[in-house]
């Protein structure tokens, strides 16, 4: 077919191919979730329905894009790590980023009722996305550690803050004042000595965030097969190995998690 005289406009498109050998991380974050969480009556400091919905939506992204080797989420954000040699969408950053965020956003709406029941979704939520490339395992692990450290830091603050308000009867301004200049040890001490709460015993989901990885699971399924020379079909059980997304609520900063799951990262070579 002859080229139209308009065809040249294609050349205005810029190349955004992600550098080879690098892990491609797509991080998304809810837009103005300060407001969204208020409007939808999220419980403070953590709403398990909201966290469950984030996690469900992230699973839907992984099932759609199997090159994601690990995903990590907390609060209104989720990071997806594509294996370093992925050729999905020819490694085009905008394609990867927009597919992740739109699959996630539509899943968030699609599964809303499963988690929030009668609480209506009042307006369409949206998520921003960004792409960051990490060339080494060390950099990638530091990235994930950074997100988990952020989760810990915020959760400790929010836990003390809302305990001071909800149980201690302080106003939000008083609680903010009380926590000014305090370090982690001070916050643990306030929880323990004033409210008899040991932060270590708080929910792992809230302290550590959610890590999603693939696991192989054997499944027994019944199949109908036709046996030769016989009229009727026979039911037999067969064992199938299936890849499934599994959630972990554990430390991913130290070595243990990575020692236990050596297949997530490829060796730097
Ligand atoms: P952004 O991301 O710049 O558009 O603005 P925000 O408001 O989304 O800010 P961000 O992402 O830094 O902080 C997340 C907000 O979401 C924060 O205001 C607290 C809220 N949020 C997230 N998870 C929960 C939850 O489980 N319970 C409650 N009550 N709020 C939550
Ligand atoms: Mg923000
Ligand atoms: Mg946000
Ligand atoms: Mg956020
Ligand atoms: Mg098309």
Automatic annotation (TrEMBL):
One of its GO terms (molecular function) is magnesium ion binding. Keywords: GTP-binding, Magnesium, Metal-binding, Nucleotide-binding, Nucleotidyltransferase, Transferase, tRNA processing. Belongs to the tRNA(His) guanylyltransferase family. Gene3D superfamilies: 3.30.70.3000. Its EC number is 2.7.7.79. It comes from the Eukaryota. Homotetramer. Interacts with MFN1 and MFN2; functions as a guanyl-nucleotide exchange factor/GEF for MFN2 and also probably MFN1. GTP binds at residues 29-34, 75-76. Mg(2+) 2 binds at residues 29, 76. Adds a GMP to the 5'-end of tRNA(His) after transcription and RNase P cleavage. This step is essential for proper recognition of the tRNA and for the fidelity of protein synthesis. Also functions as a guanyl-nucleotide exchange factor/GEF for the MFN1 and MFN2 mitofusins thereby regulating mitochondrial fusion. By regulating both mitochondrial dynamics and bioenergetic function, it contributes to cell survival following oxidative stress. It catalyses: a 5'-end ribonucleotide-tRNA(His) + GTP + ATP + H2O = a 5'-end phospho-guanosine-ribonucleotide-tRNA(His) + AMP + 2 diphosphate + H(+). Residues 139-254 form the Thg1 C-terminal domain. The lineage of its organism: Eukaryota, Metazoa, Chordata, Craniata, Vertebrata. Its cofactor is Mg(2+). GO terms for biological process: tRNA modification. This is tRNA(His) guanylyltransferase. Residues 6-135 form the tRNAHis guanylyltransferase catalytic domain. The keyword Transferase applies. Mg(2+) 1 binds at residues 29-30, 76. Binds 2 magnesium ions per subunit.
């Amino acid at each position: 077919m002859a080229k139209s005289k308009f065809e040249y406009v294609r050349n205005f498109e810029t190349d955004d191919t992600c550098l080879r050998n690098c892990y491609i991380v797509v991080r998304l974050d809810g837009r103005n979730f300060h407001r969204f969480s208020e409007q939808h009556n999220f419980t403070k400091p953590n709403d398990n329905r909201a966290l469950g919905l984030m996690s469900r939506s992230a699973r839907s992204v992984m099932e759609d894009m199997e090159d994601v080797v690990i995903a990590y989420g907390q609060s209104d954000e989720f990071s997806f790590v594509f294996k370093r040699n992925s050729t999905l969408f020819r490694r085009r950053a905008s394609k990867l980023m927009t597919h992740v965020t739109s699959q996630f956003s539509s899943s968030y709406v699609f599964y809303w009722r499963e988690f929030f029941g009668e609480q209506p979704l009042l307006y369409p939520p949206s998520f921003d996305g960004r792409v960051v490339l990490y060339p080494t395992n060390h950099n990638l692990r530091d990235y994930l550690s950074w997100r988990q450290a952020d989760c810990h830091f915020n959760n400790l603050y929010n836990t003390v803050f809302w305990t001071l308000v909800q149980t201690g009867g302080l106003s939000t301004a008083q609680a903010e004042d009380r926590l000014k200049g305090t370090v982690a040890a001070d916050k643990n001490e306030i929880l323990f000595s004033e409210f008899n709460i040991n932060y270590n015993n708080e929910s792992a989901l809230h302290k550590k965030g959610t890590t999603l990885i693939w696991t192989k699971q054997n499944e027994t399924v019944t199949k109908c097969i036709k046996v030769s020379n016989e009229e009727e079909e026979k039911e037999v059980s067969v064992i199938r190995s299936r890849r499934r997304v599994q959630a972990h609520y554990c430390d991913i900063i130290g070595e243990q998690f990575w020692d236990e799951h050596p297949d997530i990262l490829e060796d730097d070579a």
